[in-house]
Amino acid sequence: MDTHTGALTWLAQGAASNLLDRLVDRALDGSPLSPVWPRPPKTAAGTVEISVRHHVPTKGRTPVILTLQEDGSRTGTVFSFVLGHTARISVPGGHYFGAAMIVDPLRRTRSGPTLQGIGWSRLTVAARQTSPFLIPVHRPTAPVLLQLGLRKADGTPLFRV
Question: Is the pTM of the predicted complex or chain greater than 0.90?
Answer without folding.
Answer: no
